[in-house]
């Protein structure tokens, strides 16, 4: 079963931030990670990641739907998949 257990991000040139759910942090749930991700997405105009279109975004959208996460997920226009913008 697919589950989101970690989130790592940086904004502009700022430091990298991470969050992990599960045994290492029982107070942080998968829903908390999804809420953080979608909140950050709404504040940006570009997402960059390795294989983000092939794995990350489909997994985040799938888990959001399965968990019936009711906040509207709006993807920004600029998404870069390892240097290729789509």
The secondary-structure element order is EEHEHEE
Separation, N- and C-terminal Cα atoms: 28 Å
Total of helices: 2
Radius of gyration: 13 Å
Largest sheet: 3 strands, mixed
Biggest sheet, spatial arrangement of strands:
3-4-5
Unreliable stretches (pLDDT < 50, length at least 5) are: none
Question: What level of helicity do the residues show?
Answer: 25-40%
According to DSSP, the number of beta strands is 5
Overall pLDDT metric: 77
Overall form: globular
Structural class: alpha+beta
- The fraction of residues in strands falls at 15-25%
In summary, what is this structure?
The chain is built from two helices and five strands; from the N terminus they run ββαβαββ.
Write the layout of secondary structure elements.
Blueprint: E1 6-9, E2 17-20, H1 30-42, E3 46-49, H2 52-66, E4 78-81, E5 84-85
Parallel strand pairs: 3-4
Antiparallel strand pairs: 1-2, 4-5
What does this structure look like?
It is built from two helices and five strands; from the N terminus they run ββαβαββ. It is an alpha+beta fold. It has a domain at 30-81. Strands 3-4-5 form a three-stranded mixed sheet, covered by helices on one side. A hairpin with a 2-residue loop joins strand 4 (78-81) and strand 5 (84-85). It is globular. The termini are far apart.
Key attributes of the depicted protein:
three-stranded mixed sheet; 5 strands; globular; alpha+beta; 86 residues; 2 helices; two-stranded antiparallel sheet
């Amino acid at each position: 079963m697919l589950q989101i257990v970690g989130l790592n991000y940086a904004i502009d040139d700022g430091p990298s931030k991470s969050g992990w759910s599960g045994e290492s942090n029982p107070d942080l749930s998968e829903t908390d990670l999804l809420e953080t991700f979608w909140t950050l997405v709404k504040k940006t105009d570009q997402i960059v990641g390795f294989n983000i279109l092939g794995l990350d975004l489909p997994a985040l959208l799938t888990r959001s739907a399965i968990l019936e996460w009711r906040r509207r997920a709006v993807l920004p226009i600029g998404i870069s998949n390892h240097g290729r913008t789509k």
